[in-house]
Amino acid sequence: MADPAPDLQGPANGGDMAEKLTRVVQRLHPGARVENLSRLTGGANQQMWSLDVVTDTDRLPMILRQASSWNQDAENVMQLENEARLVMRAGEGGVPVPRVHEILQPGDGLGNGYLMARVEGETLPPKILKGEQYVAARDVLARQCGEVLADIHRLPVDDFTFLNSLTPGDMVESLYQEYQGYGEPRPVFELAFRWLRDNLPETPKTLTLVHGDFRHGNLMVNESGLASVLDWELAFLGDPMADLGWLCVNSWRFGNIDRPVGGFGTREQLFDGYEAASGQRPDPKRVRFWEILGTLRWGIMCQSMAASFVAGHDTSPERGAIGRRASETEVDLLRELVPLNP
Amino acid sequence: MQDLPDNTALLASVEAFLKDEVMPQLDAAGAFRARVSTNVLGIVRRHLEQAGRDGVHDERELLTQLTGKKGTLAGQTAELCQLIASGNLTPDDPRLRDYLWLTTLAKVGVDQPKYSGYRRAREEWAEFREATPPQHPHL
Predict the structure, then answer these.
(1) Strand extents, DSSP E, B8-132
(2) Looking at chain B, which residue has its C-alpha nearest residue A338?
(3) Is A183 at the interface with chain B, CB within 8 A?
(4) How much is the pLDDT for A9?
(5) Chain B contacts of A318, Cβ < 8 Å?
(6) Which of A134, A158, A192, B79 has the smallest C-beta neighbourhood within 10 Å, fewest atoms?
(7) Angle at A174 between CA A173 and CA A179, to 5 degrees
(8) How buried is B52 (Cβ within 10 angstroms: 0-12 exposed, 13-18 middle, 19+ buried)?
(9) Closest CB from B37, B105, B111 relative to A324
(10) B112 vs A330: CB contact, 8 Å cut-off?
């Protein structure tokens, strides 16, 4: 039987939270203490907390990922304990991920979530793309992304029945349904949907694990390159090339428009790494399909932000401003789909 | 007609105040929100500036030509979307091509004039227009 959903919104519950967490960490390390507990982010779906677990001999930096109390049973969102199992599987398969220390149990009174290692590294794109200390990392990052993606795509996940299977056609149609739900018809998006339907690639013989959000923000970088792949909650079974296309979307190049892979590398470097690790060279045409779908997907994600602003769910300037970013994807889609040839 | 100073100058003044005087006094999270707020005012200011300029392309007239119907801007846009979705209008049609490029450039010029894709597209459009003057009125 599930515990009552915890309410962790008020600072008054901080002490209670630390007590409950102490019981969890003592399962791992008898006698350990929790120190420096602080909330990092609080989103609609989940919260992140930072803490140190202090034992007689060690100080272990950890992160708690915890589902928001009103979102414990939400559909369409991967349950955090499933995400934890996926991250553990990725680690076993040689993918750089933070170590999962412990999955919360119902009796812990903390809802769904898990404790993982707090990894040192940088996720902010401007720092990764401009920082002096990342010069060497930038040279190898695109190739490393290719290698790591190949490793992700061959992870055995047959036993993970929580993963949805999506063919390329499913992806286009579910995106179209979402777009239509916003009731804001956009000619460039219609044109992109038309192009995607007319250029749909064949469904691969085997659908593989797809990370689903492999891009800046979820890639932790250190001086030697890719240190950790984060945020696995959008993973599904599908066409592995979807991850490569999504990584090339112009919105993640942060101004470095001529370096298609995250603003730091070339497609050739990405494909070389992928081929070296998997023996299979990505088909540029198929990757381009996914880049165009990815551009449209980001546009519709921005449109969803605009919709939540308009509906009054979040009327912050941040939410409004990101809603207006949908138009950046229209200019990118036009340059791809309606090129000007004088 | 409102008196001077005009709306765009007022917005620019508030943007400068937020950026130069408010942001430096805030912590990192507050400064971030103030910066986003400044950017939002910039969007509104650029839209007002664009609407006030002469020689702006007539979106409504282009839509009437493309759809063959009159109506509200939203209604005509929805109609155009149906024509594109059904394949009755394709970007091979120079009128649709021009409509899409002009309206998109105008929108992103308001929303994010520094966006890399927009800067590149604006160059491409200028080059194209020089080589291929419009064959149809209202552009």
Answers:
(1) none
(2) B91
(3) no
(4) 43
(5) 33, 36
(6) A158
(7) 95
(8) exposed
(9) B111
(10) no
Single-letter amino acid code for the residue at A312: G
**Amino acid letter, B43:** I
User: Model ipTM?
Assistant: 0.94
Indicate the residue of B84, B111, B121 with minimum beta-carbon distance to A334.
B121
- For Cα atoms A137, A140, A146, give the angle at the middle one, nearest 5 degrees: 125
Q: Which residues 26-45 in chain B show a CB within 8 A of chain A?
A: 33, 36-37, 39-40, 43
Nearest to A129 by CA among A263, A270, A265: A263
Question: Which chain B residue's Cα is nearest to A197?
Answer: B85
* DSSP codes joined into one string, A44-66: SSEEEEEEEEE-SS-EEEEEEEE
How far apart (Å, rounded) are the C-alpha atoms in residues B48 and B40? 13
- Sign for the pseudo-dihedral over CA of B119, B123, B124, B125: positive
Tokens of residue B129, six digits: 């227009």
The answer to whether A228 and A220 have CB atoms below 8 angstroms apart is: yes
Strand, coil or helix: B2: coil
Q: Which of A188, A194, A318 sits opposite B104 (nearest CB)?
A: A188
